Amino acid sequence: MNIDLIRAAARRLEGHVRHTPLLSSPFLDDIAGKRVLVKPECLQHTGSFKFRGGWSAVSALDPDIRKRGVIAFSSGNHAQGVAMAAAAHGVPAVIIMPADAPRMKIDNTRALGAEVVLYDRAGGESREDIGQKYSEARQLTLIKPYDDPQVIAGQGTTGLEIAAQARAEGVETADVLVCCGGGGLTSGIALALEADAPDLRARPCEPQGFDDTTRSLASGKIERNTTLSGGICDAIVTPEPGKLTFPILSRLCGPGIVVTEDQALDAMALAFSRLKIVVEPGGAVALAAALFHSQETKGDAVIAVCTGGNVDPDMFKTALNRTS
Amino acid sequence: MNIDLIRAAARRLEGHVRHTPLLSSPFLDDIAGKRVLVKPECLQHTGSFKFRGGWSAVSALDPDIRKRGVIAFSSGNHAQGVAMAAAAHGVPAVIIMPADAPRMKIDNTRALGAEVVLYDRAGGESREDIGQKYSEARQLTLIKPYDDPQVIAGQGTTGLEIAAQARAEGVETADVLVCCGGGGLTSGIALALEADAPDLRARPCEPQGFDDTTRSLASGKIERNTTLSGGICDAIVTPEPGKLTFPILSRLCGPGIVVTEDQALDAMALAFSRLKIVVEPGGAVALAAALFHSQETKGDAVIAVCTGGNVDPDMFKTALNRTS
């Protein structure tokens, strides 16, 4: 896993990925006590950065292998990213999703042309086992959500854009806060920043109770979450950091930042009122860290990646109700 | 009023304006029955395109005149655009606002450093008269919301961006739908398209009951709205098309498109779920026309400008409630 894979992914993504802008608001700067720049990947195709990794992985396959189809397991955003990338390449996609994933994510994945297989997240069977079974029966290529070099490379293109955009904004030294599940986006961004903006430092952000990466970075070895359900930040809940991603996170990232669910909801409401973007709870964790934990960050500015916006209206209203 | 003024405004705005992307979703294409491209000016500084005109006008002033300050009358978006532009230039701003404007717009305008003067929109005194009074007493320069060449030039920079972005997307012939109040944005975009993309045609979009521009274009002379209050699309309610803007609209634009308030609310909900952007009712009128009146448009694609996102949480929840 290296910067050349990320640059190659950027070339394959060109013309297909959306280059998201950097947003800002003086009202957010006031809250954080420093300049806040937001990379709204909720505006990416399919409503999250996962389209980058999906496209990168599908486009990297040998055409003869790709045409048999791909398979992915995902609580929703990776599912949609892979489904749309597969459809654009004209190949079938099977997506294994937890039955308790937000309805909108399940519906969207089906509408994007994928065959959706639901499983019980609280039950005994791991999604990895189910995925393996389908993959073998139909000769589908498994596209993992984060522990795959081409997926990490695709997510890392976000970091290439941030490096160039931060320079254009005159930001030299800053923490780049990233909502972190398995660490695909965080490690990809960390590698891109190491190459193109070494004074920007990636930092994983997680919700309280699901802070496996923060604890793993602190202890120096992979730590697991004790539970995988019950939180509102479903998009970034994974059992533990990935085997490919954790060494990269350990080498390059600053300490993790942990926020409460209430802080994530408040960040959603502020993204609504100040940036005019729709962010899901898991996608608002880094913005919550930027706004409410800025004393834990270094530099005159802080950059936060809002990773996704696939949120049901009821959950969004819960966030809005905190402001009115 | 000509294209050279718009190109000069683009040079003054460079580095200060946000270049908003073009967004899209296959789900919106399905509703319209053709490709839909959305220019989200809700993501512009201050949450609406009005920042462009405000910056253009303030930056065009002679420094000795500018330092005395500026004054504007506005239901909210022009107010914020002028307030932020004045603050960035280090000069005072007085803003005359209707007392029934959304609270968020009044609060934001004050927070951006402007002195806000409220007036009764239903009463007898015109905002123009009040503005004139302040302007004379304090030697402030009045920045009109649309009938000012430098304001039209600033708004027209949106059209320069649309022309280049449509070309990059392979769109040659299309209607460009614009939420229309006094016609500053619509006429500016029309002039920019005439120069840079003559096969793209600007079309004003209005809410039912406040369709002065549509009726004026149909009759060939300026027609007034019979009422100025009671609607939810406050951002684009003006008495009649402007004296500078109407001749441009007449010469260059296609017929107006009128949508219902319910269609504007549905467009807000779809912008939430499919584009992850926050749009106010008046800013969603063009998207509503693209989605629900596409049979009135020409070309294989339709481009809609979402002009603003300064909406109170309660109104936004009203839109979300239509989907759940």
TrEMBL record, chains A, B:
Belongs to the serine/threonine dehydratase family. Its cofactor is Mg(2+); Mn(2+); pyridoxal 5'-phosphate; Ca(2+). SUPFAM superfamilies: Tryptophan synthase beta subunit-like PLP-dependent enzymes. One of its GO terms (molecular function) is serine racemase activity. Residues 14-308 form the Tryptophan synthase beta chain-like PALP domain. This is Threonine/serine dehydratase. InterPro entries: Ser/Thr_deHydtase_PyrdxlP-BS, TrpB-like_PALP, TrpB-like_PALP_sf. Keywords: Lyase, Magnesium, Pyridoxal phosphate.
